Amino acid sequence: MTGHRADADPSETQSIRAESVATSVPFLAGGGEMGALMRAHDWSRSPLGPPEQWPDALRMAVSICLNSRFPMLIWWGPDFVMLYNDAYRPILGMTKHPASLGRPGRAIWPETWSIIGPQLESIWQGEATWSTDLLLPLDRNNYLEEAYFTYSYSPIKHADGRIGGVFTAVTETTERILDERRLRTLRELAIRSAGAPTSEQACARVLDVLAAGNPDLPIALLYRLDEDRGVLRAAGSHRVPADRFPAEIPLDADDPWSVARAVRAGEAVQLDHLPFRFGSLTGTVWPEPVRRALVVPVPRLGAVGVAGALVVGVNPRRALDHDYRLFVDLLADHVATAISNARAAEEERRRADELARLEARFRDLADSAPVMIWVCDPAGLCTWVNRPWLAFRGRSLDAELGAGWLDAVHPDDRPRYLAVYQAALDRREAFRIEFRLRRHDGVWCQVDDTGVPHYAADGSFLGFVGSCVDVSDARRFEAALRKSREELLRLNETLETRVAERTEDLAAANRQLLAEIAEREQVEATLRQMQRLDAIGQLTSGVAHDFNNLLTVVLGNASHLERLWADSDDPKLMRRITHIRIAAERGAKLIAQLLAFSRRQRLEPRVLDLNETVTRMRELLATTMGGGIEIETVLEPSPWPALVDPTQLELVVLNLAINARDAMQIGGRLTVSTGNAERGDPARPEQPPPGHYVELAVSDTGTGMSDEVQAKAFEPFFTTKTVGKGSGLGLSQVLGFAKQSGGGVEIETAPGVGTTVRVFFPRAPVVHDDVAATGAEAAARAAASACVLVVDDDDDVRHVTATMLESLGHRVVEAGSGGAALERLAARDDIDIALIDFAMPGMSGLDLAREARARRPALPILFITGYADSTVLAGVRHEHILRKPFLDAELDRRIRAVLANSRAGTLDALMAPVR
């Protein structure tokens, strides 16, 4: 009795299932973690059924999806069953992966189905959709999350045109949307709060900005610190009722919002469970209540300490991550700047008011100061007309120096006073002097003494009449006024410096934020472009593999029929067979062009003289251009040899010539030139790296390109031609081929002047004639016939290949898989060479080559492939790779060349990569 053990390990069973699926359905090969999950998944409970029964359209779409690094999703069937790749997994978050695999979309995305459901239904009408920065609320991390996406929905069609599902390429743009929104708030805050005359008005303007509807600011509170009273006073709120927060908070208290704690510690405090603390508080955008808040101290500019605190509610549909916290910190800095500028304006007005008050007081003092009137005769006898505050008797100035008037003058000022008075007496002229005088109560005061000459009616000099005014208070206030003015000037200077420094700090922070946003946008744009190219390349490669197999059968049979009916008397039959062959050859060239565009074509570089190529193509160019375009060639006199694929080189020249023709009017001139070039560091990504190159340039006298057109010139499918006149793949194909060859491209253009496209190919090393002669002689010595093992899982391709070989005189042994091929090798010793298909399910061609060489180290091997990934076969020389489709002559030449190399002893070097 057979069957599974009852105690079998589920993981072991799952692994066995995955291996079985991988063998039976090769389209699920690779794909990272999602590929492994798909292979191990139990599809019996899915509407899709087992992968072996999936339709071809779904298989191809899944293969492209799994092997792409761009987020991709497939909705299949009327239930929109979900299949996705590794890059899409982060979009599913923590809660929806891996449960989404193989499940209907409505069950996985109920929260967004009202939005995406109608879009998906519209695809069944055959119309693709495109959505840019669309808001999709997702429940992917255990809460309803605000998220934005740019995505497209495209129909997946069966071979008969029926729509089987929807293909989605998606990019999440949430971070960019949030950054732009937060930056707008910071800008508005800086603009609106500038120039506030008072700190109260500055806080009011701040709250107006916070209440403008940013979902990241659902609620807000603002407190200012009153240092004189040691309390925090509420400056206002946004969507927080007045009964939910205290108007004043003592600095040493513990309030429910933790404002005082944040101010005392100088650090942010996170508050959780707000509905339990204060009841339901909601913003203006989302219906959910605010559950968390961040309390951030507002710094005091130019001094140690804080100026207040800002309370900001956390968006209930976003996580409080590093970027969110940075945004709140920048808000607090802007608030600090607004309050500091307003306080500086208030301080300046207060100083100005104090200055005006001091000046008025000084004028009042001057008007009301005590005055003593005196008269002094020429003999020096002084008479005091009034003595309101001085107590001395009238005496002669020269009478007693130790008493009287001079005793009342300060000793330090007495010599100066006597000198001034004596000079005025000698010259009989007015005088004025300030000095210190002792009052009757013994206090020294500052007096302003003024005297003028007094004459009798007959003109005789009678003496001086003067006044002595107490200016002590006036001088004190004057000094205080001067000091206040100096302090105000110093305050203004330092304030301007502090404001300028803080403004520069905020400007630097804003610049850094802008630079980060710009850099992120540039990286996202570059990533999207690379991912689009990668997706298109993978799609192209997959299609090319299948088409090349078909073309091999068509072309091989058409060639066979041409030989079979060469002597037929029916010319119409021969023309039809020839048309089949020509169509197949054209299809093969088209596939080669697509692979060159996708940069996945295995190139066959050879040492070429570009002058010979251009000269040989001149007649073809003349036919292509027509009679209205003048063709000119400018060839390098001593060209370096170039290492390039000749077939792809001719396609490059034709592509560039056709583009030039379409850009010119009748009478234009096309110039094809060659040259040697030594290049330095590239300035643009399409230019070649430093090195020596052979240059091929195609110039025209056409319309030229604008800067905008030139910036998009290498994008796939971008074209300025009318519908039906161009696919937009020309320059993309040229760039892909040049880069894959190891070179690059450069465009010189100007509107109305014309365009020159320069393509650079690597300079080839010098190959001596004796080396080439050795290879030719070895090929000539190859056997006329050989026993060839043909290994290909496609029966039609294998049969056509065998027929070609037999018609060429070779003996053929066929095998449909790697295992069968090893059996043939073990059973027969006469096999001279193995012709192995590279892409086979189960044991690939590369795996078979390794195993065959392990058993028969001297066995020559030639790979055949519909497309050869350059990274996989990078170490295998092109002589050992034969691309499908091929004709019998090329097949025979390759087989004889490989056999000649093996007999010349060069097999090991050629086949080293498959060991």
UniProtKB/TrEMBL annotation:
Keywords associated with the record: Coiled coil, Kinase, Phosphoprotein, Transferase
Listed Gene3D superfamilies: 1.10.287.130, 3.30.450.40, 3.40.50.2300, Histidine kinase-like ATPase, C-terminal domain, PAS domain
Catalysed reaction, written as an equation: ATP + protein L-histidine = ADP + protein N-phospho-L-histidine
Domain PAC span(s) in chain numbering: 431-483
Boundaries of every Histidine kinase domain copy: 542-765
One annotated GO molecular function: phosphorelay sensor kinase activity
Coiled coil: 474-526
CDD domains per UniProt: HisKA, PAS, REC
Positions bearing 4-aspartylphosphate: 837
InterPro entries from the UniProt entry: CheY-like_superfamily, GAF, GAF-like_dom_sf, HATPase_C_sf, HATPase_dom, His_kinase_dom, HisK_dim/P_dom, HisK_dim/P_sf
Record-linked SMART domains: HATPase_c, HisKA, PAC, PAS, REC
EC number(s) given by UniProt: 2.7.13.3
Highest taxon, organism lineage: Bacteria
PANTHER family: HISTIDINE KINASE, SENSOR HISTIDINE KINASE
UniProt-recorded name of the protein: histidine kinase
